Input
Amino acid sequence: MKSAAEQVTRGRPREFDPEEALSAALQVFWEKGYEGASLAELTDAMGITKPSLYACFGNKESLFHKALDLYERDKLCYMRSALDAPTARGVAERLLRGTLDIQTAGNDPRACLGVISMVACTTQAESIKADVLSRQASSHQALIERFARAKAEGDLPASVEPMALARYLSAVMQGMGVQASGGATRAQLEQLVETTLAMWPSA
Output
């Protein structure tokens, strides 16, 4: 007959590291997007059961929001520091080179998680779209304000529109992700970075 301690041990759910599990979920979402990732794939990658997922992270939608938080904290930290560059061109260079690194280093999936999820989402995932759009809008607004300050300081020509310049840079960065997912090499993406910086408007 088994002891009470042995029975408790056998009946206790397997312990896991929530941070490691969330990191594993992030990889699945990053590769497949929100709707493309099934619960079975998520729990398998996380090494947990569905009840454990619900108990720790809530539903799939809640898990995705937490994965986005982790993505921004660990993968996009260069975007926050880029705004501290002393010049607008320096901001652009930090953003472009940060994008280059994240698209070509390690075994992470290519392209931006937010872009992947926006493309994959249907009307059944409106809250996901809203979250992704809100995060993108916040980052974009910060970039516009930084370029507006550069223009006011004479670091950018008076003819440059900060919003248009921010949209242009964002389009280049998103395009790098698309090209990386299509097989572009680091050398090819570096050429894109160098070309963009060579064309950067100077006061």
